[in-house]
Specification:
The protein is of the alpha/beta class. Helices cover about 25% and strands about 30% of the residues. The longest helix has 25 residues. Bound molecules: hypoxanthine. The site of hypoxanthine has 13 residues, from strand 5, strand 10 and strand 11.
Length: about 260
Amino acid sequence: MRKAELAVIGGTGVYRAEMLENIQEVDVETRYGKVNLLLGTCEGRNVAFLTRHGKGHTVPPHLINYRANIMALKELGVKKIIATAAVGSLNEEMAPHDFVLLDQFLDFTKTRQSTFFDGGVQGVAHVDVTDPYCPGIRKFVFEKARALRIKVHQGGCYVCTEGPRYETPAEIKMFKQLGGDVVGMTSVPEVVLAREAGICYATLCMVTNYAAGISPHALTHEEVLVVMKEMSEDISRLIMATLAEMPVEMECGCLPELKSM
Ligand code: HPA
């Protein structure tokens, strides 16, 4: 099978690998299940493109096989992942149509397989998440965005809910008091598993709406998709510029693959 050093995990609204050439669809077998993804090239670099919600957005956030996805990328040799995510905003300064590069998360998920180290053969390990999102990738993407004149907030705290329902205004009020900036349903455990696997990982969020109770109207998935579509050209430009030039090895401080204890 072809290898890849870089990967894109496309979230809601990012389903097409238009930034890639020489595309081939493959199934990667892992101990957690089979993963369907695309392999391609961008400026001569080998890139994997994985659609988080599956073809046609058929897998809801709480049923995504996060472990298989990250393991498949690991098996392909991926060293750096740039993930996209549609988010609601709790922070008036992060308006719809803005991009946010996350630096922290608050985990409100409930039912997910959130580690490779669940005892048994894999053993037990405790990963450090002081810097869950790779500072090296974040810095690179931020500078690329500035060069392309795309507005990106450098840093933001992501509240990860279980979904698939959206939040109540009371929950949003609480998340805001706790320090959350944006809310979504998928960054955890994806970011944690990448950290356990020793893969540098960053998330580029697209703010599609103000969260429940801040927005003057009820939220719909259609609204999210409309704003995502309006942002799609900038997402493609930014990701393509990143894939073309981001160093595969960098002094970012991220740690190698975790070994069980
Ligand atoms: N809440 C949760 N997930 C989301 C939202 C939201 O407001 N917008 C886009 N994804």
